[in-house]
Amino acid sequence: MENNNWINQFEKPLIIGGPCSAESEKQMMTIAEEIDKDYVKVFRAGIWKPRTKPNCFEGVGAIGLNWLKKVKDEYGMMIATEIANANHAKLALEYDVDVLWIGARSTVNPFTVQEIAEALRDTDKIVLVKNPVNPDLDLWIGALERLSGQGIKNLGAIHRGFSTYKKTKYRNNPQWQIALDFKNKLPNIPMICDPSHICGNREGLFDVSQQAFNFEYDGLMIETHCNPDEAWSDAAQQITPARLKEILVDLELRQSDDPDAIYKTGIDNLRHQIDELDSSILDTIAQRMKVANAIGNLKKEHNVAVFQPERWKQIQENAVKAGASLGLSEDFIDKLLQALHQESVAQQNNIMIKKEEKI
Q1: Signal peptide position in this chain (predicted)?
Q2: Hey, which residues does 127 pair with through a beta bridge?
Q3: What's the pLDDT tens digit per position in 255-274?
């Protein structure tokens, strides 16, 4: 994976835009016409859509490749689509799709990636790999290695964030550090950010896109629809071509040879780690309070006192011991526990004194 110079054919950043799903020839051609081609160099559309649950719209299938090809022929744009198995790969090559990407659900399965790699053996097409749904750097890198092992030289990565059980403000938590670790290990592999799937909504697209450029990503993939609210899939995260241009015009690029930019990149990286950790801490505290409230309801039902000295002593001892092993002072642990305990007791007291509603 030494020579990945394909990105140099584009004026950075590379912008890939188009609908989440191909819906009709008219829809595809309308979007392609409205997209500002001075900014967007590659037109994307999902032909096959792996969905979480059955009986959902899973793409129009191979007929959509005809519409993609028509966009290419009439507007001179490069075209891109997701491939989820070896058959998809062969069909995409047959229709001369320029950029193929392997989705997060496929990246997680080495057998699937291997079959796709063999179907694409020695292709000169650009092949991008989205991060796996789970935060596993080795699995992501391994997918690139499988493709490289089949003589595929034009490789890239797409950062689309990682799924979490607990929902946050992101559809998929970016966990920027994992993508930055990827960039450090494979600096010659171009990195594209997919803010649409990180955000899951339109509101956060600019901020995530700007953060990607602060980290010197090579481009963006943003879902774009002529009528986003009526989109057949992922409507909430798609934007109009006009809005896409507004975002792209306002974004600032960072230069790695600028000392100020180096500092900005470093401090942004660390601050975003802090933000993500703070968000995780608050979410964990909220979950703890829910459990405390459940305990309060149980105590009320069985007429048990809120404060249990022996239990509190056990919590303190366990926390101090665990904190010491993590390099945290006993004084800090004590203050943190006191704050948590006071809030838990207050909420349980509210439960105890709450009057039963009259029926």
Answers
A1: none
A2: 100, 155
A3: 666 666 667 767 877 887 78
